[in-house]
Specification:
The complex is a heterodimer of chains A (about 525) and B (about 230). Chain A has about 525 residues and is α/β, with parallel strands linked by helices. Helices cover about 30% and strands about 20% of the residues of chain A. Chain A contains 17 helices and 20 strands. Chain A starts with a strand and ends with a helix. Chain B has a five-stranded mixed beta sheet, covered by helices on one side. In chain B, helix 4 packs across helix 7. In chain B, about 35% of the residues are buried. The radius of gyration of chain B is 25 Å and the shape is flat. The chains are: A alpha/beta (about 525), B alpha+beta (about 230).
Amino acid sequence: MTSMISHAQALQALRPGADAPMRADGLAVNDLLERFHPDYGAKARVSLRIGANAGAPCHPALAGLLESNALIDDLDLAGAEPLATDVLVIGGGGAGAAAAVTAAMRGARVIIATKLRIGDSNTVMAEGGIQAAVGADDSLQRHYEDTLRGGHNEGDRALIAQMVSDAPEVIRWLIDLGMAFDLAEDKALGSTLLRKKAGGTTASRILCHRDFTGLEMMRVLREAVELQRGIEQLNRCPAVELLSHDDGSCAGAILYDLERRSFVLVRARAVVLATGGSGRLHLQGFPTSNHYGATADGLVLAYRLGARMCDLDSFQYHPTGVAHPRHLAGGLISESARSAGAHLLNGLGERFVDELKPRDVVAAAILRECAEGRGIARDGQTGVFLDARALVAADPDILETRLVSLGHLAAKCGLDPRQEPFLVYPTLHYQNGGVMIDGDGATSVPGLLCAGEVSGGIHGRNRLMGNALLDIISFGRRAGTRAAESLGQRQAGRGGINHVHRWRRALAQAELPADVRAPLLYPSYGNFHLRRTAAA
Amino acid sequence: MSETVHLTIDGREIAADPTVSILQAYAQSGAELTANVGCMGQGVCGSCRCMVRKDGERQVSTLLACETRVEPGMQVSFIDYFLPAHVHHYDLKDLHDSWGMLDQIRAVFPEAEHCRHCSGCDRACPKGLPVQSGVAFSVAGDIAAAAAVFDQCVMCNLCTLACPENIRPNHLGLFVRRSVAALTLRPIDLMRRLREVASGEMSVNVTLPRVETATAAPRLAAPAQDR
């Protein structure tokens, strides 16, 4: 067990008022990541044995799900209620909502199927903001290069270029839908947008609505979906398998209706998979900032149908998850706090990293402090301090204006940010990789599109703050447009699960177990078992 | 660890650690959790709505289960979501004339003028927003004040459930806020950048930075042989 500095001792070490000194023994960035970031260690990857990415690296927990058996059989299809539509959107977060609204506006009949409820997603929990290069001192090129560099040059250059070029129009689209953004000056016309700094960026580029930008975005998008003609919502209907044509293209999906406890078979000309990420897998034992529904379902479904993936061994650990109190562990403290000037301090009262480095670097630096005995222990929880005291002292209104969520969180943690720093520890936050897509969200499987966190290739091996909210709207709209274009192209044939039969043969040939079944649909603590409840 | 707390959630007798939220206690009890759950503690998704009666109190309050700590003797019932029978339909595109805003509010939300000031919405709001005043501001046309009231609304719909006049206050508030943004938010820096992008004056050169000058990525450990 690594030694830690007690919370009381660490508080003693805080210097009142004065600027904290910076440790001088910083490692080179690559050394720091290789030694302390969870993605780079020996437990971080295995080789996939079957499927489109056979031989490619994948996180072991995710590999177990990708190389699993289907939840359903032909028998389940026989009793399923049949539905047909032009576009089936799976997932009710920002990407799914943007795709559904866009497709419906173009005249497509849309069904949006959600596991929980429209809007229940990581989108609503996003706090910091959305990147768009609108400043006079900024450019699309800088946004592009920052994104590429932040992802260690592993991102797809064409996808990044398209996304950053979309960004100004994305903001306009959101404003036209009724989303508010903070302004730099309080005047009706001629004002500029308030722009915040993000870790790893060369210009202030984060646009926001206070520090609950995702809530503002999602409540507007949810209302837009609910009021849009041509969209039917199927809430509490998780997708349990995709449907395929004999040529291997996507024909729709099989949903499980939790209210009726029965299967629904939705045939569609195009399917947009917008199921989000996988934080609730709690990889390597980390807590997560993610929504309850983030269980990698979309990756499992797409992989079984043959979709190619990338960077399945790359995840984002957000530097500042709550570490204490324990019942809030993993909850997010927005990068907005560091963007506004909050400092990270170890148990000796020292700063140890430039707080506005990219997230993987800052997270690795925190893990290093804890591993080398400079972490802080409190009631069995460990972490470092996030100190906003000077920030609040300099701007006493900030907790009511720009950092509203931070103020609420402090109250829940039972601390006064004017007096005492937060105890923070990295929290599993984002799935950097995912299903490979082209600029329209099309995957290697005809008829199957992806948008949002389920897709990969944009953020390389590390995402910058504010690029997720941009990603979901940029690619959500494009996928919705492309899906609506497939109107009338292919006859929606009946569709079946021959791909599942092929998959089972591949499982058997690779001597993989047939009793591991996925998608998970809910985390283990959701106590959900499809068969038990379906039979009951 | 500290002593155990006993409470009742949806009819189940549950023993829980006193530091956890109602939602965590429910999940830890082994109950199936496939609804009324979302952000699990951040308090922004509005999914885990519940009625809570504290031990020895007659008053029932509506709260979010992820933000409320368990207490001994609490009685809790989750409030399931249903798609509402009555929805106020509007298309923001019809709102191009901001002179017509007052009439638009009346046309889309005619019930708002019928508010009987029962304060049911105020009591229902788990965020403590002064919802009823937001309704009054909307009717009076004090758009900025109405927008401010609903700024932190998480759209849990508890005020909608509570309103005897079917006003759907949170949706009225969102309508007002969306109208303000769609009709008045015209940031000049965004407008300039949109023009530069549309004209081709600004674009991205994907050949930069050159691959050879890019910094080397950190090295990954080899895949593990066993799982």
